[in-house]
C-alpha cells in the first residue's frame, strides 16, 4: 500500500496484531465524543491506543511510529454497555414478539406463549451445556457487531457446573468485556447454586486482569433461605449482586422487607436491581440512600407488562439508570433501540404532563411547563445511561465507559457519512436519533480490533449459525414445541 493510500485510508487493513504487545495505532480525524467531561468532545481529533489502553485523546496527536486508522467522517466514542442480557435465549429469538411475562388469562396471542411458562419453565429446562455455549456465543458476537463492548450476562441456566462452564467459556470466546452473572438453574441433581461460586471464582476468575469478570445473581424471589446464602457468598468473594425487581411478578413484598432491613440482608452499593417496576416509594428511597444501582430494560418493560419504566422516579430521587436489553425473545438488543426507547418513553409522559396543564385550544394549547414538571431527558442523558453509567454499575468504570487516557481501549467508530445520517449536524443527536447497527463500522475491545469496516473478525458466522440452528431444532423438539414461522404471532 502506498503512503498516499494509507493517508486516504479507506481500503486499508486493520492495524496488525492490534491490542498486542508494543502495538500502537492512532485513530485519526474523527468526531470524538469521549463521554468524559474532563476530556470533552472534539469536532476533529485523534485517539492514540497502545496495547490495550488509550494513551491520548486530542487534536493532531504526534505519533509517527503508530499505525493509522482513518476516522474521517466517523464518530469515535466509547463502546456501549448493556447491564442485563439473557444471552442463552438466542435460540428463541422473536418467538415471544407479542409475549407477556405471564399468562394473564386473556386468551390473547400475547398470553400464549409467555415468558414464565415457555421460556423460564419451558425451554430453559431442556438446555444442554452445548446449547448454552452456542446460544451465548452467538448473542455475544451479535451484540459486539452492534457496538456493545461490555455486557452483564444474566444466565439463569446453571443446572450443573457443566452448564456454568459452557456459559463462561462462550463469554471468553466472544472476546468482549463481560460480567458473567452466576444466577440459579432448575435445581436438578448435581445443582450447585449458589455454593459453586467458590469453584467458579477459583477456576475462572482468579485474576482481575481479564476481559470477563463475575457478578453474583441474588434473586430475592428465590426466598430468604437462598438469597441470604447467595448474598453472603458474593460479599465474601467481593463481587457485585444483581437481582430482578418486578412488581408484576409478585416481588414487591420481599423487596419492601429487604428495604426495611428485616429481610436478613443489607442493601449496599454493590447491588444492581433490574427493572424496579412497581416498587414502593419507601423501597426506592432506601435503595437510593444505600447507593444501590438500577438497570432499566425500557422496551421490554413496556411491551411485556413489567410496568412503566421508572425513569421519572429515578429523576425525582437524583438517580440515573444504566440500560439493558434483557431478552431477544421479544426485542432487539442494540444500543440504539435502548436509547431511543428510554428517550421517547420519558418524553411521552412528560410532554403529556405539560399539555395537561393547558386546555388543548388557543391560547393555552402549548403551556410553559410548571416547576414541578420533570425535565425532558436529552440525547446526552441517554448516551450517558448507555455508556459510563453501565460501566459504573458493573464496577468497570476504571476500565471502560469513556474515552479517557489510561482506560482500556473499548471504542466504536460510527459511520456518519452513511445514507441514513449525512449530513452530520450533531454528534450526540445523530447517534441517538438516527443511527442503527448498520452505522457501527469498527469495534475495538481492549485495543483489539474485533469489527473492521463493517465486518466482524475472527468468527466463522456461517458455521456458528448452523450450530445455533441445530441447537434451536433440538430445543424445540425436547420441549415438544412446534416449529412454525407464522404460528406465534
Ligand atoms: Zn432479566
UniProtKB/TrEMBL annotation:
Biased amino acid composition, Basic and acidic residues: 1-13
Pfam families (alphabetical): Amidohydro_1
InterPro entries xref list: Amidohydro-rel, Metal-dep_hydrolase_composite, Metal_Hydrolase, MTA/SAH_deaminase
Region (Disordered): 1-24
Domain annotation Amidohydrolase-related: ranges: 75-449
Sequence intervals crossing the membrane: none
NCBIfam families linked: PRK08204.1
Protein name: Amidohydrolase family protein
Organism for this UniProt entry: Sphaerimonospora cavernae
